[in-house]
Design a protein that fits this description.
The chain is an alpha/beta fold. Helices cover 52% and strands 15% of the residues. A nine-stranded parallel sheet has the order 5-4-3-2-1-9-8-7-6, with helices on both faces.
């Protein structure tokens, strides 16, 4: 199962990610992303009772989009990961290199993407069996770092997150550098769309970004 999830994430190329405290709004966001073609979405563990919002989204997905993968991000420890696995998380993303989270997820056959920022951290995550490593923050590390890392370590598969933009120039730079996929947060799911509840516009934006990523990767 976890290998299939990794494959889906890399095939999609751009993963919408977000946090919202209102469960009803969160469901609308996920619905818009799904209708726009996303088959994997990350909800971030950023606020009080975030797990309750996640559970609400998870139930809505099972009803309306049964093939959609829902992951949880910003997981800091194994206890938090266990909570979200119990609620049905399809994959787990961490901002840190945490062996306890990796061990827990691997025991449950769940895809886990640990955060890393140096070649040694990336290598350690790979030693632990992680097929995909989160390179973050992307706007600090930069495409040049990823390209340089892949020269001696071409087997690395990186999910780049943090400051990634849906603009063509930014996405092109990351995919030309060798990114396996990217995470897109507030620059894709922007506050103006949420405040005005422009779900059709969000759907169109997600669809356009996924089409752009597909085009850039086919060159």
């Amino acid at each position: 199962m976890r290998l299939e999830v990794y494959q889906q994430l890399m095939q999609q190329g751009a993963i919408p990610l977000f946090y919202h405290a209102n469960a009803a709004v969160a469901v609308e966001i996920v619905g818009a992303c799904a209708r726009g073609g996303a088959r994997a979405i990350e909800f971030t563990n950023r606020g009080p009772f975030a797990h309750e919002v996640f559970a609400h989204i998870r139930r809505a997905i099972w009803r309306n989009f049964p093939d959609l993968l829902l992951g949880i991000g910003s997981v800091q420890d194994a206890a938090t990961a266990a909570l979200y696995l119990q609620l049905g998380a399809d994959f787990v993303v961490t901002p840190l290199l945490r062996e306890d989270v990796v061990r827990l997820c691997h025991r449950r056959k769940v895809a886990v993407i640990p955060g890393a920022m140096t070649p040694s951290e990336i290598g350690l995550a790979e030693e632990w069996g992680c097929e995909l490593v989160k390179l973050s923050p992307g706007d600090v590390v930069g495409p040049a770092f990823l390209k340089a890392h892949l020269a001696p370590c071409p087997w690395t598969r990186a999910l780049v997150s943090g400051g990634v933009s849906p603009q063509e120039a930014n996405l092109r730079a990351w995919f030309e550098a060798g990114a396996a996929c990217v995470g897109l947060g507030s620059r894709l799911i922007s506050d103006d769309l949420l405040q005005q509840q422009q779900w059709d516009a969000l759907e169109q934006r997600v669809s356009a970004v996924l089409a752009l990523v597909k085009r850039l990767r086919s060159v």
